[in-house]
Amino acid sequence: MIKVENLTRYYNDVCAVNRINLEINKGEVLGLLGPNGAGKTTTLRMLTGFLRPSAGTIRVKDMSIDTDILAIKSIMGYLPEAAPIYPEMLVYDYLNYVADIRGIPKGNQLSRVREMAEMCGLHSVMHQPVAELSKGYKQRVGLAHAMMNDPEILVLDEPTSGLDPNQIVEIRDIIRRIGKEKTIIFSTHILSEAEATCDRIAIIDKGKIVADETTRALKQQESMETVINLVIAGVDQKNAKSTLDKIEGVLEVWEPGADSIARNGEIHLKLRCTAAEDLRQRIYRQVRQTDWEVLEFYSETPSLENIFRKLTTAAD
Amino acid sequence: MQQIWHMFRRELKAYFVSPIAYIVIAIFLIVAGWFFFSPFFIRGQATMRYFFELLPFIFSFVVPAITMKLFSEELNTGSYELLLTMPVNFRQVLIAKLLAGTLFTAVMLLPTIAYPVCISLVGDLDWGPVIGGYLGALFLGFVFASIGLFASSLTRNQIIAFIIAAATCFILTILDALLFFLPASIVDFLAYLSASAHFDNISKGVVDSRDIIYFLSVSFVSLYGAYLVLTEKQ
To answer: What does the pLDDT look like over B21-68, one tens digit per residue?
Structure first.
């Protein structure tokens, strides 16, 4: 369906996307995952024809983005990150306008707009100006905009960012529902989201694709390792880290997030360990030899978070 | 073609739902009305000539105020991204926005038709130059709107867009009055660039192809500039 080869984009001298290769098949839901500033949005903008690649090719259904851009745009729906819709327009007017531009015949317009309003739950706000909508509703209008022409390919840039948990669940449900028939590419930096909705996940970091596998394969890879959490006190962080690092089978020790140096000298550490053997006892014995105060000691259920971490910090 | 029409309609509607449109129209009418009518009875002539002499000066500030939002606002809110990922190209977007700006200028001029009507009631008005004047005013609005559109495509800040456009339009307007400073060899060339000189010709009732070509070429250069800016933004 979509074939991306050696896609590269520079902003002046900064390389935002560096020789990306991607192939997206019909009916697939692909999650583009990466930390902030990894190049997700730039990649999606090039896919939708908003930005021109500095180098590389994009082909959609054997059409080239250089020559058949209008034809590609007409089978594609796109929701940019903040759903930047004309603030002064009423939702109903806006959807009609999109239907007009998308070339939906006048006779079908009303029913199509109604269908979209139903699908995205917009009934109660149809006659409000976009500027007065909450973020969640704006996002839904954006989604209705993207799906208006019943596109074969749907590109969504962080569709759930800034929404409250209920809205996130709703948007995810919509994505899953339409993902059954359509090709969807969406970007996110929330791992659980990609895990829950995607067939395939491409992890992108510093403009490069560092992993491109089915969600299941990624999880399998993850189960080769476990993560053990340790909250301790009475020792400084460096000391604790170097001691734990020496334990055989511990692959990496790190502090999760900025709040790891918590109040009263508590230190939260995560230990990435091989799953080949159970390391809990070995760690416990090691800790017992010191005078640390152990506050918490638990292992984590495997999630994509750790593999994501491994892949996106590998270069440092 | 369809797309141009729909975008044009949207732009025009956007003008009239915001209060700014009415404020601009009101200011234009007050300024034009005051400067035209305050010396009108002192002159005691039944002519619109002085109104049309005034018009390029007023337009060079009012038209940029109309066009400044056309791209800047879209760039600032990001709606530009939604617009460009729909099946439209730059050419269509430019034409739609230019037509919306020009038509708004025309709507703004509409109430001033009351002036010649009133004058013809109290004196013997020659309608030829009046019709020529309005035709010229439409061309002038079209050209200044093109310049405004170009300025608007340069920046996401509407005020900067306004200043660039107003300065350019104003210079084009006063160019022929500045020429006595300059050596004779380039005067002819620069005189040709002066918008008010070409506008004067038309508003005297002389519709010359040279003037029309001038208006069309300035407009084309501005639009092509905007096109290049938008392409560069990609």
So the answer is: 899 999 999 999 998 888 888 888 888 888 888 899 999 999 999 999
Residues in chain B, overall count: 234
CA A137 to CA A125: how far, in whole Å?
8
Which residue of chain A comes nearest to B13, CA vs CA? Answer: A89
Nearest Cα residue to A89 out of A41, A126, A43, A52: A126
Complex confidence, ipTM: 0.86
CB pair distance less than 8 Å for A88 and B89 = no
CB contact under 8 A, A101 and B85: no
Answer yes or no: pTM beyond 0.90: no
Closest to B155 measured CA to CA, from B76, B55, B100: B76
In the block, tokens 């800047």 appear at: B72
Contact call for A50 and B10, based on CB within 8 A = no
Contact A283, A244 (CB under 8 A): yes
Burial A139-154 (b: 16+ CB within 10 A, else e): bbbbbbbbbbbbbbbb
> Using CB atoms within 10 A of its CB, is residue B74 exposed (0-12), middle (13-18) or buried (19+)?
buried
Mapping DSSP to helix (H, G, I), strand (E, B) and coil, where does residue A156 land? strand
Residue A86 in contact with residue A179, Cβ under 8 Å?
A: no
Report d(CA A74, CA A70) in Å as an integer: 6
